Amino acid sequence: AQSVTQPDIHITVSEGASLELRCNYSYGATPYLFWYVQSPGQGLQLLLKYFSGDTLVQGIKGFEAEFKRSQSSFNLRKPSVHWSDAAEYFCALTGGGNKLTFGTGTQLKVEL
Amino acid sequence: DADVTQTPRNRITKTGKRIMLECSQTKGHDRMYWYRQDPGLGLRLIYYSFDVKDINKGEISDGYSVSRQAQAKFSLSLESAIPNQTALYFCATSDPQAGVVNEQFFGPGTRLTVL
């Protein structure tokens, strides 16, 4: 069975501060990992994805994530958060089939 | 224009009513999916379809049915809506030709409230 855990339900950061959202996964082989963002009233937008190769992946809007096999993690980072980054963030995993398993999400609040 | 559209965007209905949520896509993708999102639970897969003749149950299909009318259209029905089906529903598509791991593209969601 595959699973994704996002330990932080809510995170609040000040604008301009750095951000790290945690994602841990459980899967018996090499996973394919995604981070999606959901802005209020919007659908899910793909921020970045890891399939293979370089374990540090760059995404849109200045986000990056690092795949760490030894820690079963795929944490999302941004050096300087903007107020427009306030949204809900989902980590997701697939083993190469069609089943995309989502974490429960982390709600990001940005204080001005 | 959006590649994946969902209608309606919002719907309030009463217990026992039949409801249909519709999804259309212009991406030309063969694969389509229906998810529901509940606070604190993330997204869970209801049904998915690999093509017009292929329909598969997801992890929470009870109380739902689907119809794949064409490559571009995938509808989700609640035959007799109940309050715990109140949720945000997402349609998604993917293209198996895109590679080993196919990214899913999501519609804007339908917020359904069952009273």
How would you describe the shape of chain B? globular
> Could you give the order of the helices and strands of chain B?
EEEEEEEEEEE
Strand proportion of chain B, as a percent range, falls in over 45%
User: Whole-number radius of gyration of chain A?
Assistant: 13 Å
Largest interface comes to: A-B, 23 and 25 residues
CA(first)-CA(last) distance of chain A: 41 Å
- Shape of chain A, please? globular
Distance between the termini of chain B: 33 Å
Strand residue content of chain A:
over 45%
Q: Could you list the spans of chain B in which at least 5 consecutive residues all have pLDDT below 50?
A: none
Number of helices of chain B: 0
Written description of the protein model:
The complex is a heterodimer of chains A (112) and B (115). Chain A is mainly beta and 112 residues long. Chain A is built from no helices and twelve strands. Chain A has strands at 3-5, 10-14, 19-21, 24-26, 32-38, 44-50, 56-58, 64-68, 73-78, 87-94, 101-102, 106-111. In chain A, the strands form three sheets. In chain A, strands 2, 5, 6, 10, 11 and 12 form a six-stranded mixed sheet that branches. In chain A, strands 3-9-8-7 form a four-stranded antiparallel sheet, with no helix packed on it. In chain A, a hairpin with a 5-residue loop joins β5 and β6 (44-50). Chain A is globular, with a radius of gyration of 13 Å. Chain B is 0% helix and 56% strand. The radius of gyration of chain B is 13 Å and the shape is globular. In chain B, the strands form two sheets. In chain B, strands 2, 4, 5, 6, 9, 10 and 11 form a seven-stranded mixed sheet that branches. In chain B, strands 1-3-8-7 form a four-stranded antiparallel sheet, with no helix packed on it. In chain B, a hairpin with a 2-residue loop joins β7 and β8 (73-78). By secondary structure, chain B is mainly β. Classes of the chains: A mainly beta (112), B mainly beta (115). Chains A and B meet through β5 and β6 of A and β5, β9 and β10 of B.
